[in-house]
Amino acid sequence: MALIVQKYGGTSVGTVERIQEVAKQLVAHQKQGHDLVVVVSAMSGETNRLVGLANEINDHPRGRELDVLLSTGEQVTIALLSLALEQLGVHATSYTGSQVRILTDNTHNKARIMEIDDAKIHADLAKGKIVVVAGFQGCDDNGNITTLGRGGSDTTAVALAAALKAKECQIYTDVDGVYTTDPRVVPEARRLDQITFEEMLEMASLGAKILQIRSVEFASKYNVPLRVLSSFTEGGGTLITAEESKMEQALISGIAFNRDEAKLTILGVPDHPGIASQILGPVAAENIEVDMIIQNTGHDSTTDFTFTVHRNDYTNALNVLQKTATELGAREVTGDDKIAKISLVGVGMRSHAGIASTMFETLAQESINISMISTSEIKISVVIDEKYLELGVRSLHKAFELDQLDPK
Ligand code: ADP
Ligand code: ASP
Ligand code: MG
Fold first, then answer.
1. Could you read off the pLDDT of 71-109 as tens digits, one per residue?
2. Per 3-state DSSP, what percentage of the chain is helix, strand, and coil (rounded to 5)?
């Protein structure tokens, strides 16, 4: 019997009816001869609701108590799904993260999974049960509840699949696979039959919120075949694996975007060795992660330095930078938190020149100004004004003919 780990996201278990529907699907999958371990998210909107409650009570809710609160969302769905399965005459056992035991480090609100104890799961499977595990949570070695960061149920599922050496990890969601870009923004987006871990990792890191980044890292590290499919419609979904598909040798696999960043510039800083670390050192000391960085060539022995941070860190970073500017005798600090980043991703880029110029030309034709650019072997990212995000994504999708099976 093949062991399969399936994960159902918030929308898939968003109502009592949906949970009953998922239970029916699980029974059908079990009848096909599979051993099933099922990971569920909180009902859709529930984690946001809990965050909202915490915000009403505390200016900066975080840490241990926030995890105690947020983990309750998933505890509700594991119990309801198990009850729904019992109702259909199938034995099921639900486990919270600490009951399994999914051991994590003690970084509350974005903990990392260290180890999974699979003994109880194997024992239950041997009895023919369906095992239902709460996503997004674990516990540290002192027994404190931890959570894995938003979207973390994907990572629970992949980590379980790796630990249990499952044949496949199936992520059931509200779209029927990974598309060339978010189909909510570009209705012409096309579903990909297959995509490599490497490309999926870039897509996720650059903003495609279909899978949590950590889940793709895990899948790639432990070589767990990962499949994204719909819990609403039938179909094979998108398979994410190590091999590059022979069928689809597109230059660009997809377009990712995000509105999560903000940009800061320090103008007229004295241009001497060590300046970058003098600017970014205090930012790092505040635990603020920096993404893109540009230092202009100096003139009149001064230079300008621009970088991006997560939008949540914008105000904090601006304060730090203002202090640095005074200390260094820089002319001015400016910032913009209404920016967006669009990225083209594809392993085919490695061997092809000219992608960047087509990208810049396309944006220019729409009069979209590019304020920052960054490239790596398999991606090109640009920062633009947030207002033009959707227009930019749509025109690039069209220019690279991503809606067609044999794109440019
Ligand atoms: P779940 O609640 O099941 O975890 P998510 O909302 O986290 O679901 O992820 C599914 C959503 O991801 C889709 O509804 C879609 O809008 C979005 N998405 C973003 N980029 C893509 C993409 N490239 N392909 C498919 N879906 C995408
Ligand atoms: N419920 C959590 C969230 O909304 C985890 C998840 O759904 O993956 O972020
Ligand atoms: Mg998700």
1. 999 999 999 999 999 999 999 999 999 999 999 999 999
2. 40, 25, 35
**pLDDT, tens only, 301-310:** 899 999 999 9
What CATH number does the domain containing 166 carry? 3.40.1160.10
Ligand 2 pocket residue status of 47, Cβ below 6 Å: yes
Does the beta carbon of 153 sit less than 6 angstroms from any atom of ligand 2? Answer: yes
The answer to whether residue 271 sits within a structural domain is yes
Any ligand 1 atom below 6 A from CB of 202: no
> What are the contacts of 404-408 at 24+ separation with CB within 8 A?
404/190, 405/190, 406/250, 407/250, 407/251, 407/252, 408/251
137, 104 in Cβ contact below 8 A? Answer: no
Confidence (pLDDT) at 348: 83
Structural domain count of the chain: 2
Domain stop point among 116, 150, 174 = 174
139-148 residue pLDDT tens: 999 999 999 9
Mutate to test the pocket of ligand 2, among 38, 102, 136 (most ligand atoms within 8 A of CB): 136
Q: Distance between terminal CA atoms of the chain?
A: 43
Residues 383 and 265 grouped into a single domain: yes
- If one residue of 11, 49, 148, 153 were mutated to test the ligand 2 pocket, choosing by the most ligand atoms within 8 A of its CB, it would be 153
d(CA 19, CA 305): 51
* Residue 30 DSSP one-character state: H
User: Looking at the structure, do residues 159 and 265 belong to the same domain, yes or no?
Assistant: no
Residues with CB under 5 A from ligand 3 (ion): 9, 151
Pocket residue to mutate for ligand 2, from 6, 47, 72, most atoms within 8 A of Cβ: 47
Q: Is 42 in the pocket of ligand 1 (CB under 6 A)?
A: no
- The model's pTM is 0.93
Query: In the chain, which stretches have pLDDT less than 70?
Result: 244-250, 406-408
| Closest by CA position to 377, among listed 224, 201, 226 | 201
pLDDT above 70 covers what percent of the chain?
98
Residue whose Cα lies nearest atom 4 of ligand 2: it is 47
Ligand 1 pocket check for 209: Cβ under 6 Å: yes
| Boundary-marking domain end, from 143, 174, 205 | 174
- Predicted confidence at residue 353, as pLDDT, reads 78
Q: Is 8 a member of any domain?
A: yes
pLDDT tens figures, 26-59 = 999 999 999 999 999 999 999 999 999 999 999 9
